[in-house]
Amino acid sequence: MSGLKSLYQPFAKLLASRKLYLSKSLQFSSLFKQELAHSLDFVRYTTLELCCNEIKMNNVAGNIAELGVYKGDFAKRVNQLFPNKKLYLFDTFEGFDQKDISTEKQNSFSSGEQDFSDTSVELVLNKMKYRSNCIIKKGFFPESATDVDDKFCFVSIDADLYEPILAGLKFFYPKLEPKGYIFVHDFNNDLYKGARKAVLEFCAENNIGYLPIPDSGGSAIITK
Ligand SMILES: C[S@@+](CC[C@H](N)C(=O)[O-])C[C@H]1O[C@@H](n2cnc3c(N)ncnc32)[C@H](O)[C@@H]1O
User: Fold this and answer.
1) Which residues belong to CATH 3.40.50.150 in the chain?
2) Is the separation of the CB atoms in 42 and 22 below 8 Å?
3) Distance 15 CA to ligand 1 centre (A)
4) Is 119:140 a contact under the CB 8 Å cutoff?
5) Quick one: residue 197, left, alpha or beta (phi over 0 = left, psi -120 to 50 = alpha)?
6) Which of 22, 81, 114, 154 could form a disulfide with 52 if both were Cys (CB 3.0 to 4.6 A apart)?
7) What's residue 165's pLDDT?
8) Predicted structure pTM score
9) Closest ligand 1 atom to 167 CA
């Protein structure tokens, strides 16, 4: 993959410099042009940018959060797009917790074995253009959120596993402003079957709709 990526990036950059994109319909996106050379997941990033435009156009109040930050690569873009919003960053910064892994294994949702421990708060903060907007919530979610009393216009839930994703939906959805968005990553990812189950359960119980998108991993988007 890294060999393919190293060939793809200069080629994509060359095409972009001549205003040639994989799809003409993506030419609206300034972020797409900037980031093309750094990311293969243009659907995820351009959808983020479009939702950000809607939030700004509708003057949606509230702050931003990501649950599941890892090295901050998605959070970095969110921080860049919302210079005037606080960004809560929830992660253990030490990888999955054993409690969540047990549920994964008992229900055959995933192996729970992926290692996300090679990160740190400093590494993430160093990527942020608006570092002073960031509020680090290090620790096991949802316990790490007990002191958070805020409203949100955009939330990214990218914790991979059933328990934290369901807990994230229960915590953030009531705090979501009207016309705000929650992205849940891995909704259509067979490697993390708990993500889909958490979304389906939460949405059915609360009579909420969602939109699946064809990004890498297959996110579901919830709005209010
Ligand atoms: C796939 S990574 C996030 C990737 C990141 N959003 C990105 O796009 O680069 C999943 C992260 O969720 C975190 N995580 C999973 N369960 C958690 C929990 N219960 N509490 C806090 N963090 C959790 C892991 O530590 C890991 O860093």
Assistant:
1) 41-223
2) yes
3) 34
4) no
5) alpha
6) 81
7) 98
8) 0.88
9) 19
- Look up residue 26 and give its two tokens: 């993506």
Tell me which residue has its CA closest to atom 9 in ligand 1: 73
**pLDDT of res. 116:** 97
Q: Separation of 33 CA from ligand 1 center, angstroms?
A: 27
* Structural element, H or E, at residue 181: strand 176-184
Q: What is the CATH number of domain 41-223?
A: 3.40.50.150
**Counting runs of H as helices and runs of E as strands, what totals does the chain give?**
8, 7
CA distances from 164 to 22, 31, 91, 101, 198 (A): 35, 30, 10, 10, 9
Which residue has a Cα nearest atom 24 of ligand 1? 95
Task: Tell me how far the alpha carbon of residue 65 is from its chain's centroid.
Answer: 9
Pair 133, 83: CB distance under 8 Å:
yes
Strand 63-67 with 87-91, pairing: parallel
Assign 223 to helix, strand or coil.
strand
What is the distance in A from the centroid of ligand 1 to the CA of 158? 6
Amino acid letter, 69: V
Instruction: Show the tokens assigned to 2.
Output: 């890294």
Q: What is the pLDDT of residue 216?
A: 86
92 lines ligand 1 (CB under 6 A): yes
Does ligand 1 have an atom closer than 6 angstroms to the CB of 215?
A: no
Taking 70 as the pLDDT cut, the residues of the chain under it are: 1-9, 12, 15-16, 19-40
Mutate to test the pocket of ligand 1, among 45, 128, 160, 215 (most ligand atoms within 8 A of CB): 160
